[in-house]
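Researcher: If convenient, please comment on what follows.
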Amino acid sequence: MKDPVRNTAFAALIALAATSVLAAGNHAGGHSQDDAIGKPGVLAKSTRTVNVDMTDGMRFNPSSIDVKQNETVRFVVTNSGKLKHELVLGTEKELKAHYEVMKKNPEMEHADPNMVTLAAGKTGEIVWQFTRAGKVDFACLQPGHYDAGMKGAVNVTKAARK
């Protein structure tokens, strides 16, 4: 009798944690137009394509990308490894919080515009507009990958005044 109660309580805690993650802006619909990392872009308005490779050496290539404020970039992301990898754009704080949730729920699936999760050998894309100058971090949040150094940064330079 205790097991069903314990399982229900555990399921409720997981649901609560997922709700907290949603509210924190780490899943579906979580990023607003005024968000520190920018907003989903429109493919037709992208100014360039940046190819990013993810490897089982727990690295992104390139791991540092320079863009201009208000630029819309199409990232074509390829998983050249044999493990599942993902690229998630966010602040360092958001990425660390999301990573903690991923370690507890490794099979969590994502469908947000600021991330792409790919099986071995697959390619996907993110179209993103960088609305604020500064640094936007990205990382693979699959368990163990972030700790192994699978992270990078988009350096957003301030737009020139007209």
Notes: The two ends are 70 Å apart (CA to CA).
